[in-house]
């Protein structure tokens, strides 16, 4: 066992103290979800029967999820990421079985998708579990075959490990989440040192399969989203969410109307507490608020990649790169949708949007990232 790994096995009280963490990452893990909690409460104002109902029902449930996610992130940050990755095969198997099962037993949210399990009144989205598990699995594979990482056989193993969950998520069909998975896989591959031409080939295969799937399964609603983006003047109904979102952003001006004072969310803005919450932030906190949110994700990107650079081993580098890229890429896609730059995808804004499994697994990934940052401090002190 090399010296950095030996240090990882010896813990002291100093190691367990908060300064051992990256203070910027820790601040983001705490502050951004708190902003999300405030904006979720504001976005749910139109559905509250009165002031006494505002903090009841779904809102309180979401606040509980936010607190649970924070506890999870802190707890996972104290777990050695090597111990987590040692169990990647079991986690991967469970995830694949869950993705297979949801195609048969899943809750159908509309005429085209089967993405959820409904258990005792709770809904669980297995594709969200696929994000951290895919990153852990690919990182573990890269660590295991680190001496031959640039060879074609090792790359083929990585394609197989990443391809199975990505294809299963596509078949739900959930192309936006499968895109996020593919981006995370690319990030892990780059961090591991996979040859660039292999990664370009993977992207080509992914895009081709996605197009063939849309045409073969006659996914009219996804084709309509793309058509609405390309020709908004003739797609008023399909483009309604983007129209209302951009109207909300524009009406906020520089400083916004104030928290709780937005009006577009009152029956005009679809999914205001989840997919469209960035528009609520823009209307109520203005350009300064949306700029601060964008800055937070850019800070997460910078600190996460710095953590990947300083990680004590290849495993930590791959984990940090994959986790950071996955979260930030999803955030950027959501913000591009709300500003009308890309077609509607249905992806929530990580850490801020309302959501159960999405928020919990995102916070879990950040806990792993904090642990890599902690390990970097041990290895470099």
Describe this structure in words.
The protein is mostly helical. It has two domains: 15-78 and 234-381, no CATH class; 85-218. The protein has helices spanning 3-8, 13-16, 23-43, 58-76, 81-85, 88-105, 126-144, 152-170, 175-192, 196-216, 220-230, 240-251, 277-310, 314-338, 357-380; strands spanning 117-119, 122-124. Helix 6 (88-105) packs parallel to helix 8 (152-170).
The structural class is mainly alpha
The number of helical segments is 15
Radius of gyration: 21 Å
Total number of distinct structural domains: 2
Instruction: State the share of residues found in helices, binned by percent.
Output: 55-70%
What's the average pLDDT?
Answer: 82
The H-and-E topology, N to C, reads as HHHHHHEEHHHHHHHHH
Biggest β-sheet strands, sense, barrel? 2 strands, antiparallel
Per DSSP E runs of 2 or more residues, the count of β-strands stands at 2
Task: State the shape.
Answer: globular
Please state roughly what percent of the residues sit in beta strands, choosing from under 5%, 5-15%, 15-25%, 25-35%, 35-45% or over 45%: under 5%
Contiguous low-pLDDT stretches (5 residues minimum) are 1-20
The side-by-side strand order for the widest beta sheet comes to: 1-2
Give the N-to-C terminal Cα separation: 18 Å
């Amino acid at each position: 066992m090399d010296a950095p790994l030996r240090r990882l096995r010896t813990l002291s009280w100093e190691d367990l103290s908060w300064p051992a963490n990256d203070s910027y990452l820790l601040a983001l893990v705490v502050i951004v979800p708190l902003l999300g909690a405030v904006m979720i409460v504001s976005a749910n104002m139109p559905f509250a029967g009165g002031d006494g109902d505002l903090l009841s029902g779904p809102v309180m449930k979401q606040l509980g999820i936010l607190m649970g996610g924070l506890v999870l992130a802190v707890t996972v940050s104290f777990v050695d990421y090597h111990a987590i990755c040692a169990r990647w095969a079991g986690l991967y198997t469970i995830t694949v079985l869950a993705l297979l099962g949801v195609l048969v037993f899943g809750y159908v949210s509309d005429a085209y998708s089967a993405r959820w399990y409904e258990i005792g009144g709770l809904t669980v989205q297995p594709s969200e579990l696929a994000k951290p598990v895919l990153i852990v699995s690919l990182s573990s594979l890269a660590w295991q075959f680190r001496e031959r990482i640039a060879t074609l056989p090792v790359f083929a193993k990585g394609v197989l490990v990443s391809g199975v969950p990505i294809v299963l998520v596509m078949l739900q069909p959930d192309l936006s989440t499968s895109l996020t998975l593919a981006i995370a896989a690319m990030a892990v591959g780059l961090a591991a040192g996979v040859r660039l031409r292999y990664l370009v080939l993977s992207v080509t295969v992914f895009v081709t399969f996605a197009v063939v799937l849309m045409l073969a399964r006659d996914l009219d609603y996804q084709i309509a989203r793309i058509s609405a983006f390309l020709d908004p003047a003739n797609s008023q109904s399909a483009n309604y969410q983007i129209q209302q979102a951009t109207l909300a952003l524009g009406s906020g001006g520089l400083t916004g109307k104030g928290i709780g004072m937005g009006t577009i969310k009152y029956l005009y803005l679809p999914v205001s507490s989840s997919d469209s919450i960035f528009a609520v932030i823009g209307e109520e906190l203005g350009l300064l608020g949306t700029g601060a949110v964008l800055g937070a994700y850019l800070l997460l990107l910078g600190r996460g990649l710095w953590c990947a650079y300083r990680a004590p081993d290849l495993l930590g580098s791959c984990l940090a790169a994959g986790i950071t890229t996955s979260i930030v890429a999803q955030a950027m896609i959501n913000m591009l949708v709300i500003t009308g730059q890309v077609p509607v995808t249905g992806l929530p804004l990580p850490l801020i949007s309302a959501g159960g499994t999405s928020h919990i697994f995102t916070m879990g990934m950040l806990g792993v990232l904090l642990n890599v940052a902690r390990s970097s401090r041990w290895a470099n002190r």
